[in-house]
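User: Please check token order:
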Amino acid sequence: CVDRWLQDQIIPLMALAGCCNDDGRRSEVLCGELTLHSQTAMHVAEQMTGCKFEVERLDHHDDGDDDSGGEVYGEAGRILGRHIIRCRGIGFSYA
């Protein structure tokens, strides 16, 4: 489990790690609110490496009058709740 200050910094490592085959292996990390920095880091990592990120929201907030498609945003664009960030990385090897 990582906090909001670490989650965006671990994204590049997740993009490089992992395996690009069909065995289903991937990196995953549990975090709290999803920060805008992390959302941006995932987008940039996907564009630069060809990795693929998925975010699963574990907590669902339903306040009835939310027009944002079910996402509840906090301060600075953070998506509230707990999330699992998964990545099928490129399997980088320094060899």
The longest helix spans residues 36-49. Residues 63-67 have pLDDT under 50 and may be disordered. The chain has two helices and three strands.
